[in-house]
CCR4-NOT transcription complex subunit 9
Amino acid sequence: VATFILQKILLDDTGLAYICQTYERFSHVAMILGKMVLALSKDPSARLLKHVVRCYLRLSDNPRAKEALRQCLPDQLKDSTFLPVLKDDNTTKRWLSQLIKNLQEPGLADPRTIAMPQ
């Protein structure tokens, strides 16, 4: 429930701006999301993962948050940890692909060459 509420706050432009206004607010949200990813890697839930990925994707719409996420996005979202959970969830796979693409630094890598969960 808390993740869904956070997602609703972030999907609102004012909410996103508020969360990203200070490093402290952003870092608390990023820390909690990171802990959730770690917990999900041990006890997967496709529904909860969908909300977590959507939160990260929305954070990547903010330039300052995007810079920070390049450093703190959990490895489990970048490797094959969640492949079995996402196998039948095309929406979350698409969001995760878009998140990874958003976090690519321009000119450093072609996003099409990055291995993504299928």
User: Anything to note?
Assistant: The helical segments are 2-11, 13-20, 23-42, 46-59, 63-72, 83-86, 90-103.
